[in-house]
Amino acid sequence: MSELVTGEAVALELRPARLPSRALAVLLDLIVAFTVYIAISIGLAAATASLDDAAQIALAIAAFLLVLVGAPIAVETLSHGRSLGKMACGLRVVRDDGGPIRFRHALVRGALGVVEILVTFGVVACIASLVSARGRRLGDVFAGTLVVRERVPVGQARFVPPPPPWLAGRFAGLDLSAVPDGLWLAVRQYLTRMQQLDPQVSWAMAVQLAGDLATRTGTPAPPDIPPAAYLAAVVQERQAREARRAFADHAPPSSAASDAYAPSVPSTPPGPGSVPTPGPVPTPVPPPPAAPVALPAAAAERPATGFVPPA
Questions:
Q1: Which of 90, 132, 280, 287 could form a disulfide with 151 if both were Cys (CB 3.0 to 4.6 A apart)?
Q2: How far apart are CA 116 and CA 81, in angstroms?
Q3: Which residues lie across from 92 on neighbouring strands?
Q4: Cα separation of 268 and 274, whole Å?
């Protein structure tokens, strides 16, 4: 995604999380982490009572780094930016372009979080979050990430405008498997806010998004279709495919399949006083045609004279 689209996508839809919600999420994460760390420390102290002091100190440092540094990095990497505290507060860590974070982003955030949050008791992180326009701490700045609000109020959800009717089904054969989620997010947010943008800016963004989408699909955008209409038609095609995939398992069985699995009713002899039900009349099968009798060669060559010998 281009820088213009990335900036507009973040400014339009991705809502940066502010200091109160972020502090609450960090507090919940620290409570869980310190609870696990204390439990592990007690277990290690009981298990390593026979070791010397150096070994006990090394194990304590290893447990500290594993639980309070390594575990948050692993959780954010595997959950794509959603720790326990962030899930409870409706927050999520994303990249600056709106995409999911990876291990390198979580590693940078976790390493600097030791200094910002643990060593300085969150003072550095609070100051950096208050100074930043989008509430980012130093770990977010160096990692290129942003903590956003994942829960959007229902009343503020916007409707994606449908494409023109003459474009329905035009892109049914388009390959959409290589389009990333970040590009879909940018396209959707542009379609919901394009009426609020300046016409020239809106047209430029539509051209860039259509070019990025055509590059991902491998099929150039038709030149006779406006870029905004092209984007709306492709989004509608993606939604239609998701709907067909979601309801494919709930389709009713066909009549042929139901007839094949219909139970057969065995025929029983009529009892006394019962009226026999006439069954289906079998269709007579004609006998096979008789095989032609081969005549001798002499008889076949003899001309017909009309004379019949006596019996």
A1: 90
A2: 18
A3: 148
A4: 11
